[in-house]
Amino acid sequence: MAETTNIAGTEHHGDGESRRDFLVLTATALGVVGAASVAWPFISSMNPAADTLALSSTEVDLTPVAVGQSITVVWQGKPVFIRHRTEKEIKEAADVNVAELRDPQTDASRVKKPEWLIVVGICTHLGCIPLGQKPSDPRGEYDGWFCPCHGSQYDSSGRIRKGPAPLNLALPPYEFKTDTSLKIG
Ligand code: FES
Prior knowledge:
Cofactor: [2Fe-2S] cluster
Function: Component of the ubiquinol-cytochrome c reductase complex (complex III or cytochrome b-c1 complex), which is a respiratory chain that generates an electrochemical potential coupled to ATP synthesis.
Number of domains: 2
Bound molecules: FE2/S2 (inorganic) cluster
Subunit structure: The main subunits of complex b-c1 are: cytochrome b, cytochrome c1 and the Rieske protein.
CATH class of the largest domain: Mainly Beta
Keywords: 2Fe-2S, Cell membrane, Disulfide bond, Electron transport, Iron, Iron-sulfur, Membrane, Metal-binding, Translocase, Transmembrane, Transmembrane helix, Transport
Number of strands: 11
Largest sheet: 3 strands, antiparallel
CATH superfamily of the largest domain: Rieske [2Fe-2S] iron-sulphur domain
Shape: globular
Structural class: alpha+beta
Catalytic activity: a quinol + 2 Fe(III)-[cytochrome c](out) = a quinone + 2 Fe(II)-[cytochrome c](out) + 2 H(+)(out)
């Protein structure tokens, strides 16, 4: 399947099976998610004006996203990573000694529902898009995301654990309208 027709990879881990599907969410994000090594300012220059973006929100149906899968949606021109976390990922995130973190935040303070982690997919170092959304991607040593630009590693709560990035992956404003309906923005 051509990369340019998809913006979101889904993945499935946990039962020894791995598959690669794509959810076609919008045609406006061509190349955004695939361009992991392209710095974000370049991408942003193609986006609509800021005053238009400021008003926008993105609604996402989470029904097709199984445990262990991740999708990427676009909100205000930015990639937002949505991961349906496994029990293992939730436990790993909760078991971290927060005092040892560079940007100390509990996992509980970063989620509204433990099974859903929702973060802005932009590295806090220099703005690349970290890898970890697709089954074939490296996820670093902490079951999260790996930024190929300078090697930052994020954990399964999107917190910075290694490499030069100073901060955790940002949290977008969002609310669950129902158990499976998410509104970002
Ligand atoms: S931009 Fe991610 S490590 Fe530098």
